[in-house]
Amino acid sequence: MPRPCATLAVSLLVALASFAISCQQHAGNTPPAPQTTPGPQRGSAAPFSVDPATAMKFGTHEIVLTGNRSLANPFDTRATVTFTPPSGPANAITVRAFYDGGNTWRARVYVTEAGTWQWTSSAGVDPGLNGKSGSFSALDSQLRGLLKKDSLNPKAWRSHDGRWFVGLSDTAWLLFNPDAQVTQNWQQFVADDAAKGINVLGPVGSLESWGIGDVPHLGDNEPWDQLVDGTADFRRYDLTKFQNAENRLIWIFNNHPEMYIQSMLFGTQLQSSWSGLPQSIRNNTMDYLIARWSAFPNLFWLVSEDQDVTANATLAFNREVGNYFAAHEPWRHLMSTQPNRNQGFPFTTASDLNWASYICLQVSDSTQAVQIQQYGFDSVPLQVMMCEDYYEQDYGGPPSGKSDPRFYYRWGTWSWVLSGGSYSHGGRYGVIHPYTQTGRRDLVWIGPGGTNYTGFQLRGLDSVPNVGSYFKQRNIDLSFFQPDDTVVTSFAILPGRSWHPKVLRRGSQEFIIYDPNAGSQGPWSSVDPTTTASMTIDLTSAPGPFQVEWYRPYDGITQSGGTVQGGALRGFVAPWQGYDVVLRLVSSTFRPAVQVAFTRSIPSG
User: Fold this and answer.
1) Which domains does the chain possess?
2) CA R_g for the chain
3) What is the model's pLDDT at position 72?
4) Which member of 73, 277, 333, 335 has the lowest number of beta carbons within 10 Å of its beta carbon?
5) What is the reported pTM?
6) Rounded CA separation 175/171 (Å)
């Protein structure tokens, strides 16, 4: 990230010493009462439902239990709930109930079937939590459900309802931060991004932020409660943080159910201090996070970010968390972590593939997706996600450090998607300002380099609506495609430039080519206004004939190019001068089974 490296806020030795006396310091304190989570009214159905409301298939359902808060530490109470779906006990799943303040414990289930569910509770030390039972009904729905790797193409993602998924992300580190100074308009931020075609918000600090950083009020993203001396009580959890974050998470799920959250579990600074915590504390903390969050299908995970993967402690921290979640999480969400900028991603060994289900990169120039081959990830069976580039408004300018941010991020998005990956835009990393309102003079943003971007409208998402809609309107499922840039044998390019068109092909039946027609590269990227995109494509192994379609990613304009015979090298010239273009060739005899593509199964793990 474009900010100074995070440092540890408190001495681990002091914190561990405080752990020994935490019970005495908390004696007599009443845990905070649980906050009311936003969501459906009684009897209604919504993506997030609370008993006795009706649930939705591929949603989250919660039951509330009343226990004994007078125990020395209610967080130590072990209670479980077994949920049995309509298909019967063979598919039952048992989850931990978690303490949420007052006399309240909650248990959540990811609802994978429509029909009548049964549940029973068990607790050895608290009669109020033991032996309870009930049932709830779940309706069928159009919710997408949990994201998983595709069963046939592990580089592609598919939602639980069977639909192919391409991640179009916007970085939102502080989305769950309680400070109104930085998140006063967070709901409009989500709505604006959804309107721009964004379907992933992230990375997002799961509780507050990315960790201890350069702006003091942004928080540390750590889950533990704070003692009176400011150190952490590792046996208790900060319910104010959790409840604030979940209120927002539930609002997003209920109001924008197709929006996913790439949630960062732990703050940056823990990579150097994790190993100093007792194993029981580490395990209990991860169990608590799993109990609260695993039932949300609109989440997927990052262990942390800005990870120095040259340090053995950092490698061990990420592997321990990743493997623990893989072994204990009921619904195996997608999981990764984010190394420092330009450090690659070392978690691709055979043992790492047990927990790492996608590659997350932080890079300096994302326009051409060259990092996939640079690091050898084209041979790794994981999707590569460009998680973070330098931001549209962090250094340089104003209005931006990019000379044409609309083109820079459009080029990057098409390059990564047509390389089989996914892409994330970044606007203003230290605030949550709605995209459409970033031109307001009262929404102050000073970049980390000291540049005042206040009043300058962001532009990097202006063409993103034309990405997802392109594939949706044509019923294209890219899990059936493979990258093959060599198909383009020559193309119009200015002297001294080094980019290459990106190509996905579906055997010899279909080709999708993105030509950036760039006159300059890097942060100064811009389209060459004097050139019309043209290219030669090797169709010697593809007889055709092909239907030809041109698409203008800038504004979504489409034009037919007629038909062309295959079986040889063929030249193509775009119908517009001074634009980047997408060229699609579809065999006239090819009839893709779209319905099959959208119902293809995903693995359960």
Assistant:
1) 48-139 (2.60.40.10), 166-471 (3.20.20.80), 479-594 (2.60.40.1180)
2) 25
3) 86
4) 73
5) 0.92
6) 9
User: Is the confidence at residue 35, as pLDDT, over 50?
Assistant: no
Nearest CA to 424 among 168, 61, 209? 168
Task: Band the pLDDT of 246: cuts 50, 70, 90.
Answer: very high
For the segment 537-560, the average pLDDT, to the nearest whole number, is 97
Q: What is the sign, positive or negative, of the torsion defined by CA atoms of 272, 276, 282, 283?
A: positive
Q: Where is 422: in which H helix or E strand?
A: strand 422-425
Enter the tokens of residue 278: 């007792």
What is the H or E stretch that residue 416 is in? helix 405-417
| Orientation of helix 312-328 relative to helix 279-293, angle to 10° | 50
DSSP string, 20-59: HTHHHHHTTPPPPPPPPPP-PPTT-B-SEEETTSBEETTS
Quick count: other Cβ atoms within 10 Å of Cβ 595?
9
User: What is the per-residue pLDDT for 603?
Assistant: 45
Q: What is the pLDDT of residue 593?
A: 53
Phi and psi, residue 128, nearest 5°: -65, -20
Residue 263's identity, in one-letter code, is S
Half-sphere exposure (CA, 13 Å, Cβ side) for 35? 15
pLDDT in tens, 373-389: 999 999 999 999 999 99
Q: Residue 1: pLDDT band by 50, 70, 90 thresholds?
A: low
Judged by DSSP in three states, 135 sits in strand
- Whole-angstrom Cα distance, residue 562 to residue 544? 13
Helix (H) or strand (E) holding 585: strand 581-587
Surface-to-core class of residue 526, CB atoms within 10 Å of its CB (0-12 exposed, 13-18 middle, 19+ buried): middle
pLDDT at 9: 34
CB-CB neighbours of 207 under 10 Å: 27
Amino acid (1-letter code) at residue 244: N
Record the tokens describing residue 322, joined without a space: 């990743």
> Chain-wide mean pLDDT for the chain?
91
- Residue linked to tokens 């019970």: 23
Q: What is the reported pLDDT for 332? A: 97
Among residues 65, 62, 44, the alpha carbon closest in space to that of 53 is found at 44
pLDDT computed for residue 227 by the predictor = 86
The pLDDT value recorded for residue 7 is 34
pLDDT in tens, 143-200: 999 999 999 999 999 999 999 999 999 999 999 999 888 888 999 999 999 999 999 9
DSSP one-letter code for 91: G
Decide if pLDDT at 525 tops 60.
yes
Residues 6 or more apart whose Cβ sits within 8 Å of residue 210 = 1, 6, 173, 203, 218, 221, 264, 267, 268, 305, 306
CA-to-CA separations, 136 to 62, 69, 395, in angstroms, rounded: 10, 27, 53
Sheet holding 422-425, edge to edge: 335-336, 299-302, 260-264, 200-205, 168-170, 422-425, 383-388, 358-362
- Residue 423 C-alpha from the chain's centroid: 10
Give me the residues paired with residue 572 across strands.
535
Beta strands in 245-349 (DSSP E): 260-264, 299-302, 335-336
Tell the residue number behind the tokens 């150097």, with chain if given: 272
Residue keyed to tokens 């379907």: 199
